[in-house]
């Protein structure tokens, strides 16, 4: 149990950025006990990351920070930069979302560890620093650590890079680790390994952790206590099981209710007529130079009927987005047959997609990247209609207004630019444009993965409602099994370009037959602290009493 005297005590913290008329963080107070794991959760803009940056002295110089923060009795706020720098790295370690941004691409992993150890442990000689660097990489689960010292960041996977960043954070033997979205960009199996690593570091070293995240599955897996933030204010705090089982604040209840894992499973029925899309034995290869070809999709087969969501799931590099790009005509297949609306499309050249564009819509992960920043909402939605439909000005305006209304945006917003909208609102515009030509098939590639939980729920509800009205078929590409369970009637599981399992979603996710699928399902964190504790006990071979 954590000691009564807090390791970190924050009182009345207020943060205001230059040019803003209101505070991003408004007078919050909280503590982190010694050896305690505290989660600071909330949606984008809640102020959780700004709080972490203020405590470590990493806010922009023009930010106004008021309030008090004491670490082990020593004042951090108010205080000077030298005081905070002395604590940063040595007493307080930090891990951020993007490990590649935290590492210098022109220096080896060994050099960067050596530089950090030289700063924190000046008494160590060169051999001592090398030995310590190897032991740090071993501690965070990096295989063949001596060999990895010679590698550059671009020669390691995202999960390994995040482990290296954690090793760097541990070099100063900190009492507190501040982890800001440390697993957000990682596959679920890699995420599970990192969460287990953080759990072990807390157990074995007694290191406190301030975990900043929007992922309630991660919170349920790791945290002991939870602080819920909204608009710069802590709206609720409590034991992790109390927060999940009996939340008091209305916002917390709504936040939890929006989680895809709590919204039930897809129930809509597909048409039993001929499939809209049939993929049979699809193979895709990339040129790897010197006349060689690297095959990344190996004989994939599946079909989709009208009115059906089919999930295509797998880890990064499994080939799921490559298949989506091939169906859109952006890359060519090397073998196999694609039948769309009863027509054999054959092996198309990448640019030969003019006939398909009106019948296949696409929605991608980043709507800002798929919308022209100089075009208004109305102009973006009208663009495919101008290209493929002969409509007069009045008919075009009416069609665009109807599409804007269909995605539940105010008609008065037709002249707004993408930069004036939130991420969820931009995704609604992207959906309206994708459906402007009444396509038979919609390919949705990670359309909600960059969105907050409540916005994600709104977009999923919107897709479901629009499909019920127009009966389009949808290939839903995702790594989020909870979202797939909620939306998709069937699921296809990919691994390294091969279909390892395909069936009804409930059958695949509740009773997976293949070891890879079982591991994928088991790795996905659930918004249930008790179940996560039991899963870790089984996974790590621990006594269940340790989690009671």
From TrEMBL:
Domain ABC transporter: 10-256, 279-521
One of the protein's GO biological processes: peptide transport
Domain of life where this protein originates: Bacteria
Pfam families linked to this entry: ABC_tran (PF00005), oligo_HPY (PF08352)
PROSITE patterns in alphabetical order: ABC_TRANSPORTER_1 (PS00211), ABC_TRANSPORTER_2 (PS50893)
Major location (coarse): membrane
Protein name: ABC transporter ATP-binding protein
């Amino acid at each position: 149990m954590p000691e009564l005297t807090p390791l970190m005590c924050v009182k009345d913290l207020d943060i205001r950025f230059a040019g803003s008329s209101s505070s991003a963080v408004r007078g919050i107070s909280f503590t982190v006990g010694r050896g305690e794991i505290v989660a600071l959760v909330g949606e984008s803009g809640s102020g959780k990351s700004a709080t972490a940056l203020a405590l470590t002295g990493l806010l922009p110089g023009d930010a106004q920070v008021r309030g008090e923060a004491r670490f082990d009795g020593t004042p951090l706020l108010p205080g000077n930069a030298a005081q905070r720098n002395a604590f940063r790295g040595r007493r307080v370690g930090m891990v951020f979302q993007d490990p590649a941004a935290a590492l210098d691409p022109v220096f080896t992993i060994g050099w960067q560890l050596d530089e950090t150890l030289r700063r924190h442990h000046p008494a160590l000689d060169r051999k001592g620093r090398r030995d310590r660097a190897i032991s740090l990489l071993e501690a965070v689960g990096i295989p063949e650590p001596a060999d990895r010292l010679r590698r550059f960041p671009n020669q390691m996977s995202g999960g390994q890079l995040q482990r290296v960043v954690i090793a760097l954070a541990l070099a100063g033997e900190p009492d507190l680790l501040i982890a800001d979205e440390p697993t957000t960009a990682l596959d679920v199996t890699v995420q599970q390994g990192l969460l287990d690593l953080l759990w072990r570091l807390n157990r074995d070293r007694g290191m406190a952790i301030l975990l900043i995240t929007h992922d309630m599955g991660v919170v349920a897996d790791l945290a002991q206590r939870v602080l819920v933030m909204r608009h710069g204010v802590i709206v609720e705090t409590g034991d992790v099981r109390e927060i999940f089982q009996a939340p008091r604040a209305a916002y917390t209840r709504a936040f939890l209710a929006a989680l895809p894992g709590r919204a039930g499973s897809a129930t809509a029925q597909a048409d039993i007529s001929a499939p809209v899309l049939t993929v049979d034995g699809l193979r895709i290869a990339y040129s790897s130079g010197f006349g060689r070809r690297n095959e990344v999709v190996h004989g994939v087969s599946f079909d989709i009927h009208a009115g059906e969501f089919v999930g295509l799931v797998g880890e990064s590099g499994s080939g799921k987005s490559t298949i989506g790009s091939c169906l859109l005509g952006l890359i060519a297949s090397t073998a196999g047959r694609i039948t769309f609306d009863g027509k054999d499309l054959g092996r198309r050249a990448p640019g030969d997609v003019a006939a398909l564009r009106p019948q296949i819509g696409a929605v991608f992960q980043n709507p800002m990247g798929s919308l022209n920043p100089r075009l208004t909402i109305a102009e973006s939605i009208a663009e495919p209609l101008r290209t493929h439909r002969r409509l007069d000005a009045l008919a075009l305006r009416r069609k665009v207004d109807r599409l804007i209304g269909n995605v539940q945006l105010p008609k008065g917003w037709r002249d707004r630019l993408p930069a004036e909208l939130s991420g969820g609102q931009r995704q609604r515009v992207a959906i309206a444009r994708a459906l402007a030509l009444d396509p038979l098939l919609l390919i949705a590639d990670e359309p909600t993965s960059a969105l907050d939980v409540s916005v994600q729920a709104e977009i999923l509800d919107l897709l479901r409602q629009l499909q019920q009205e127009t009966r389009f078929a949808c290939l839903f590409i995702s790594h989020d099994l909870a979202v797939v369970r909620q939306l998709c009637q069937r699921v296809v599981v990919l691994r390294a370009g091969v279909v390892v399992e395909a069936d009804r979603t409930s059958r695949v996710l509740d009773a997976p037959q293949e070891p890879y699928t079982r591991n994928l399902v088991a790795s996905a964190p659930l918004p249930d602290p008790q179940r996560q504790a039991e899963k870790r006990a089984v996974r790590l071979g621990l006594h269940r009493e340790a989690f009671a």
